[in-house]
Design brief:
4 helices; 129 residues; single chain; 2 domains; mainly alpha; two-stranded antiparallel sheet; 3% strand; elongated
């Protein structure tokens, strides 16, 4: 059966259907390696998981479990996880915070969603650093 695949009449099917799928799968594995690096994840671990877990389950797991893209501090350009109020390297304020509990608040809030403190100012949040 296998040796029949390499006969001249079946070789066209192999080239037209199987080769493009293989090339696309290799491109997807390369994308996972680069994307994991951009997101601050372990590149080699996720690449091997996507490559060796059967039936494409590793690829699906990567896209379900991947971290959000990193953001950069405007002051020191350190790559950090999104959602932090302050840069862990230089202490620069990254987002508006509650003046009482110092958690990140969204613009337009009149009260903090975590401690309930009234947020002052015209925007409703403190952005001082």
């Amino acid at each position: 059966m296998i040796e029949d695949m390499f006969q001249p009449r079946h070789f066209g099917i192999l080239v037209v259907f199987i080769l493009p799928v293989l090339v696309a799968y290799i491109a997807l594995i390369c994308y996972i390696y680069q994307d994991a690096g951009r997101r601050g994840m372990q590149q080699v671990l996720w690449t091997l998981l996507a490559l060796f877990v059967p039936s494409g389950i590793g690829v699906v797991l990567y896209f379900i479990l991947r971290q959000p893209l990193l953001v950069y501090c405007a002051y020191c350009r350190t790559a950090i996880q999104p959602g932090l109020a302050y840069c862990p390297r230089c202490g620069h304020t990254l987002a508006a915070t509650c003046p009482q509990c110092r958690r990140v608040c969204q613009a337009g809030w009149s009260h903090c969603g975590w401690c309930g403190a009234a947020l002052g100012g015209s925007t409703g949040v403190s952005a001082s650093g």
